[in-house]
Known about the structure:
Blueprint: E1 5-9, H1 13-25, E2 29-34, H2 38-45, E3 52-54, H3 57-61, E4 67-70, H4 74-86, E5 90-93, H5 101-114, E6 118-120, H6 128-139, E7 145-154, H7 166-169, H8 173-188, E8 194-203, E9 206-207, E10 217-224, E11 228-236, E12 244-252, E13 256-261, E14 269-275, E15 278-283, H9 292-302, H10 312-324
Parallel strand pairs: 1-2, 1-4, 2-3, 4-5, 5-6, 7-11
Antiparallel strand pairs: 7-12, 8-9, 8-10, 10-11, 12-13, 13-14, 14-15
Helix pairs in contact: 1-9, 4-5, 5-10, 8-10
Amino acid sequence: MSRPRVGFLGTGWIGRHRMEAIVETGAVEVVGIADPSLEMAEEARKLAPDAALVEDIEGLLDLSLDGLVIATPSALHAEQSIQALERGVAVFCQKPLGRTAAEARAVVDAARAADRLLAVDFCYRHQRGTERVAELVRSGALGRVFAADLVFHNAYGPDKPWFYDPALSGGGCVMDLGVHLVDLALWMSGFPEVVEVRSQLFAGGEPLTGTDRVEDYAVAQIALAGGISVRLTCSWRLHAGQDAVIAAEFYGTLGGAAQRNVGGSFYDFEAQRFAGTARETIASPPDAWGGRAAADWARRLAAGERFDAQAEGLVRVAEVIDRIYGR
């Protein structure tokens, strides 16, 4: 039985890492690679020596693909996703799916019309600890969950200039990091209605004004139906005393649970369950989670899955991001 034919558009570090995870599944055949940097493309082809190197998305789509992995700058995600879907090609896209909810909606509508599998690299859903915390939240083991506190502080900032151009990125640390937190808050709680969103955005320690800069610090308060209050904070280049501070904490009437990074690591996480002053560790490193979202998409593609209505959640996340930005 033949395997789905998959191409890779954008093979920087993230693109190559996701490519490695997909290749390791053995579920698909990598037939094409495109990247503006020949050096990056050649590096990626070490993972799939038989893949063709082509110039752009058109060259990839001409290879009769079944699936396309997109890891390009944010401004291109929606357009490239739609281009692939309209050619009948399933898509796995880096976040954000679109710079606005309107862009995300257009992609999801294209996937529905084409009846093709669409997924976004919300990789934090696939951490072992995140899955354990989600089980506790959804099962009622924590009682009625009423509060969530989500944080993503990065002591550094992106190294590519387009991240700092609002027209190209769609936003700053919220679009880059906060999107993961919004997704976790909604996904863990079953995508309830968003009742209210209030936010404050800062750039260089001052309240953000105008549209010519992006925020490097943000705090948002999100009220969800069912009485869940979500506090979200994220930043670039914060004096955090370590490389990163990443956490997703949920509190209910019968207990609490949290997933937090260990020692400032971007990769190592520990999950704990709380009852009063007692705590129990329910997941700890090591956990090679980074490529699991990509691998999951590849396996689903190989199993013949088509459009998944849960893709509507991608629009819900983008709508909250829009509201954080006040648009």
